[in-house]
């Protein structure tokens, strides 16, 4: 597995790097995942250290976790515990579905835009509905089942996920609802 361990305005020593590698290796080996690479970023805000980790699995899923503490090692351990919980839930769900994916999740490229209203127009008109494109980037749209999409959304810690339904190839959306449940939008089923 490839590691990228860095610090935002922090010097990350060899001891911390080896601790991170052995800790993540133990977590990943426990659940027999096949990770391709891991990115770990440490930062400090006032007296509190923060650790953010992102683990890419060979199935196409990405698990992310973060932890905070007053000690840098404790921040990593808090992050590792969250990652451990996510991987445990992922493995349990895979067992529950009792089927193995013969091929990795396929991804297609899609443009993603961040829209924001122009401040000058909204102040002058008060009712302007013309947003301005602030950022343009590319994102990956996976082709998977609804259950796998929910799992990927939860592992990534995102509020929603756009995906192609592997049954019919149509674009679907799963999202976290305010009541704690997960919503699923399939435009093909609406009439």
Automatic annotation (TrEMBL):
Please state the gene responsible for encoding this protein. raiA
This chain's function reads: Required for dimerization of active 70S ribosomes into 100S ribosomes in stationary phase; 100S ribosomes are translationally inactive and sometimes present during exponential growth.
**GO cellular component terms, semicolon-separated:** cytosolic small ribosomal subunit
Its protein name is Ribosome hibernation promoting factor
Instruction: Identify the PANTHER family for this entry.
Output: 30S RIBOSOMAL PROTEIN
Q: Does the keyword Cytoplasm apply?
A: yes
Alphabetically list the UniProt keywords: Cytoplasm, Translation regulation
State the similarity comment. Belongs to the HPF/YfiA ribosome-associated protein family. Long HPF subfamily.
- Identify the taxonomic lineage of the organism of origin: Bacteria, Pseudomonadati, Pseudomonadota, Alphaproteobacteria, Rhodobacterales
Q: What's the subunit arrangement here?
A: Associates exclusively with 100S ribosomes, which are dimers of 70S ribosomes.
Where, subcellularly, is it found?
Cytoplasm
Q: Which Pfam families match?
A: Ribosom_S30AE_C, Ribosomal_S30AE
Fetch the NCBIfam families from UniProt: yfiA
Against SUPFAM superfamilies, the record matches this protein to: Ribosome binding protein Y (YfiA homologue)
Per the record, the domain of life is: Bacteria
Q: Which GO terms describe its molecular function?
A: ribosomal small subunit binding
Originating organism = Paenirhodobacter populi
In terms of InterPro entries, this protein maps to:
HPF/YfiA_ribosome-assoc, HPF_long/plastid, RHF-like, RHF/RaiA, Ribosom_S30AE_C, Ribosom_S30AE_C_sf
Q: What Gene Ontology terms for biological process does this UniProt record contain? A: negative regulation of translational elongation
Major localization class: cytoplasm
Give the signal sequence positions: none
Domain (Sigma 54 modulation/S30EA ribosomal protein C-terminal) spans 130-183
